[in-house]
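Good morning N.,

You mentioned wanting to compare the apo and holo forms, so I went ahead and generated the holo version with adenosine-5'-triphosphate. This is what I fed in:
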Amino acid sequence: MTSSKTSNIFGRLDPFEVSINKPNSFVSNVWRLRHWMAPYRWRIALALLFAMLSATSAVLIPVVVSRVVVDGILMHNYRTDLPDYGQTALIQWLATTLNTEQIIAAALVGLLWVLLWSGFGYAFRSQLSYAALLGLSDLRRDLFAHVEHLPSAFYDRVMVGQVLTRIANDIESLSELLTGVGALAGELIPLIVAVSVMLSLDAMLAVKLSPLMLFVAGVIVIFRLYSSSIYQVIRATLSRLNEHLHEHLSGIEIVQMSGREALSFQQYSAINQANKVAETKAIMAETVYNPIIDNISYLAIASILWLGGQHVLNQTTTLGSVVLFLQFSDMLFRPIVALGDQANAVFRAAAACERIFGLLDWKESLSVPLQPIPLPEGLEGRIEFRDLNFCYENGETVIRHFNFTVAPGENIAIVGPTGSGKTTLTRLICRFYDVPENSLFIDGIDIMQIDPAQIRKRVGIIFQDFHLFPGTVYDNIALGNPTITREDARKAAELIQTLDFIEALPLGFDTVLEDRGQNLSQGQRQLLAFTRVIALNPEILILDEATASIDPETEAAIQAALVKVTANRTSITIAHRLQTIRRADRIVVLNHGQLVEVGNHKELMLRNGFYKTLYEAQLYKRRRENTSSRLTQDV
Ligand SMILES: Nc1ncnc2c1ncn2[C@@H]1O[C@H](COP(=O)(O)OP(=O)(O)OP(=O)(O)O)[C@@H](O)[C@H]1O
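and this is what came out, ligand included:
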């Protein structure tokens, strides 16, 4: 029995198609971030404590100036009914202790609060940024671990580049959000402290000023709603510009060969123009917005002088309190403006959260048996297809009623026109996809009852597009498998006749392969791919057109080595060039996913069927190519 394939929360949608317009999802997504931030909660708590201490110090600076210096020292108006948070007593004590004037003591205490304000502010920001960095680095690691285990079917639909940019860019957006929220907390705490001080000094004046704050908040909200749509267009056009650049530069030779430069230029210019229009709108909006915000703060100063002045004349407040209100005006507006400035980061983070968690929640996986049947120690290598039908996600059946048995140790070749299903068959044996139960067996065990990881340890495959990882030659042969020693790698290289070329490299097996083996020739890269699979010593070997890009001399060496490695080992070779598989025990001929003929080369040629037509067509094509290349050389 196998566990059923887990359904995903977005049905058939991809995580990158998920709309961000899901009410409440942002709040719940941000709330979910606590899972990654929780290990750093003490650091966050410490950061918040520093923020409070910084805010308190920030508020005490104006208190010293207004209540002690203006009201007390300059106006001699010591009103004990108004709070001064112990500053008058502290300054008087300091003046007596230092035997100095009160104004000097006030300046020293003011300096102390300035130093504490900046010191605690620095400690708050650094602790919070570090906590965000650690939490998001854990999230990035978890995301990578998750995408690494998503099955091939997922990557058939979603481009790898898309996953990469999502992991990089979306985490960056979250980082902006977390540090932005931290910065906001750093502004909001002084705001709260300032408002409570203002209410305790002159509640009426504070209430009279509140409509102005609401007006500022309204202006900011309207502006940010308008600008967010512009910034969305800017982001979309920028990423399309990048995509266009990437696609056209990576295929620059094809673009130039097919004379597509002008068309490509036109397309790029059109997106660039759309970006320019949006950027211009953004510049216009910002140039109107910034002076408005600046002028609003002057309006606040004027309102405080006007309303506060009346209170001073009525003797309901002191001059020092008005000075304090003036000093606080910046503290009141800065958080509201900062909140507006963070709006874009919040919109970006909302989309990023949606995609990150959409990807993390993507539960697509291969069916894994609850109690897998272990593969026997020494695998015979019998592969049995019983009326196998298979279709990819798009629903079209690509393998139809396929019945065939590969005997232990047999060397099979699969041939057929392009798109006939050759590669698909080999991918099914490697269990990159789920197949219907009781349709594919290895050594008599239904492949759906075997743990996929087990299968991949016992089946070696050389893909058409083999992949070399950053690292040394040895790293690329062993691929982190601790059971493959250097000696194994050496033996494999010897068998496949790659030892000479590896030892000729500057550091032999320790030579670092730059940029996916760009410092090797195509043939050398393919030889390494062969060495890798032979070092693994798999019981079943699959070769997908693996000799396609090797020069005749290297190919001859490989063919000789292959005779050795395929002896007494089940092997399946997909080869487009039919001359290379003439020695196969049996050749399976596929057409439109169906088995049309089976037999060895001789038998199939005698049958005068589909294989013979394919073979002769290829021979004819090859002769024509050779003739035309000879003619070109003669000319
Ligand atoms: N990942 C995929 N998702 C959807 N359809 C696919 C996928 N891979 C292959 N196909 C389709 O399945 C069919 C068989 O493809 P397959 O690659 O197995 O053929 P092939 O015989 O190996 O072709 P070629 O000789 O060109 O490599 C084709 O119609 C192809 O378009």
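The pocket of adenosine-5'-triphosphate is lined by residues 156, 392, 394, 398, 416, 418-424 (CB under 6 Å).

Happy to go through it together on a call whenever suits you.

Best,
F.
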